[in-house]
Amino acid sequence: MNYIVTGGAGFIGSHLCEKLLLNGDTVTTVDNFNSYYCPSIKRANIACVEQTAQKAGASFSLVEGDIRDAAVLESLFSRPVDIVIHLAAMAGVRPSIEAEALYWEVNVMGTQKILEACRMHGVKRMVFISSSSVYGNSPTVPFAVTDNVDRPISPYAATKKAGELLCYTHHHLYDMNIACMRLFTVFGPRQRPDLAINKFTRLILADEPITVFGDGTTSRDYTFVSDITDGLMRAAAWTGSKEARYGIFNLGGDHPVSLSEMIETIERVLGMRARIERVPMQPGDVDRTCADISVSRNLLGYSPKVSFEEGIASFADWYQNTLYKG
Predict the structure, then answer these.
(1) Which of 3, 103, 135, 156 does the annotation list as catalytic?
(2) pLDDT digits over 223-261, tens only?
(3) Is 156 one of the catalytic residues?
């Protein structure tokens, strides 16, 4: 199978590329190595993917550029393509409040350009990476794919909802098979440095204080990266139907963890105590996320395997052996 993975130098994208290569698939990725976080981290991720491709004897290609660039897309789609997994996006809820226009341009117009490239080149299958942030502060728990998501509370969430709508339009007009995947807080080795588990681990090891927004009762449905990539590959297979399909799926860990529990787990794994500084909640943050994964279980066979503590131990082991200079 010939895959395009957009955003393949990122945390999730690099893990997905490796999994596809180990499966014997041909993978082409596009990434612009932007400065949202240090590009050298993404270069290191790509180096890992290239090593995996070499060991597996599989074909991997990198196209460096922006998904909004027509020449980049033409280069990307000039080779055989069976399916696109579209991860490339401006990430982060809080930064989207300060740079709303950029998030709209990349996440919405960039997705439109990917969909149009698929149409022009006859690619009928796509997996779009959405986000649990589309649920906002929903009073209904767990969050189900049938819930109304018309009240996003951040520009980032609004762009992901808009992406889902664009995907449906292209499914309807051009018979594309598209799976929209709402991911719930992903963690594991290579997690972005701006995300809490990575940041807290770094600060605790350095015996520096960690900033905690709120009283610690907010909760997230943390999902280990290998469970996410398994779900994405299952979604890719689901798009292989001969009949045109469009679906929305939650990929979560099926067990929300409070902020206080998350910190306690990191402390326990590291054998160190955190020094906590509490500040008010930030605009755009949601109080909780909790995934109803019944549709993903029933239609994709998705079933998360890695517990939160096992995942934290795996992340801490990677961090201490790869990044930690203490």
Answers:
(1) 156
(2) 999 999 999 999 999 999 999 999 999 999 978 999 999
(3) yes
